[in-house]
Amino acid sequence: xxxxxxxxxxxxxxxxxxxxxxxxxxxxxxxxxxxxxxxxxxxxxxxxxxxxxxxxxxxxxxxxxxxxxxxxxxxxxxxxxxxxxxxxxxxxxxxxxxxxxxxxxxxxxxxxxxxxxxxxxxxxxxxxxxxxxxxxxxxxxxxxxxxxxxxxxxxxxxxxxxxxxxxxxxxxxxxxxxxxxxxxxxxxxxxxxxxxxxxxxxxxxxxxxxxxxxxxxxxxxxxxxxxxxxxxxxxxxxxxxxxxxxxxxxxxxxxxxxxxxxxxxxxxxxxx
Length: 272
Fold this sequence. Notes:
Blueprint: H1 2-6, E1 10-18, E2 21-28, E3 46-52, H2 57-65, E4 69-75, H3 78-87, E5 93-95, H4 106-112, E6 118-132, E7 153-156, H5 161-173, E8 186-187, H6 190-198, E9 204-208, H7 209-214, E10 218-232, H8 236-245, H9 249-256, E11 261-262, E12 269-270
Parallel strand pairs: 3-4, 7-8, 7-9
Antiparallel strand pairs: 1-2, 5-10, 6-9, 6-10, 6-11, 6-12
């Protein structure tokens, strides 16, 4: 949570002391959105509302669930998705925030939902790395290369798990973001990042191997991350058909067909 504070993404709203125990409560400072109405076509299907980090596998999941539900996707960053979940805008969210303890998502969910019983399940492990043009004409091989003066970068939005990982890595490597050309040029999805490179508007972006493959780009793998789905326990009945589908061979087969996705731990509950 200190990393989120230092990035000016969350702020302390309340401090409670009970004896020797001090509890700090946070809220997101990311850009807010006003939802006046979720306007969907008239249908007898129940609505299933997701908001959170962009993920390619969610498209196939939405297609399958669309047979039974009106699947609504509000694509935002990992952090904003959890905020919307807190506010009741959606029924479940998706996140891949690497915490200071080296684990994904657990500490962030605990801090943002200190007063609620939450559940979390792994959707997939995904490979992230540097997306570059075919043939890698600028010989970009490591994170340090994005700070070269001849390299144009395209970033991800504040609060996204990809951006949080990058900023932590730049801090570890002691790379000043002012050295990175177009560091402040941010897009919201892995697909947009890949499109910017494919169209020649940028030379490199940090993103999913699957997105690089879809846009015919070369890829330099850097790390594997865990992407989890999160929901309040009281919402479990409404999303139970989706949770059951995650346990099927059909889902795993579809997931493994995506380059850079690993279904080995898909469907595993994460202890909170």
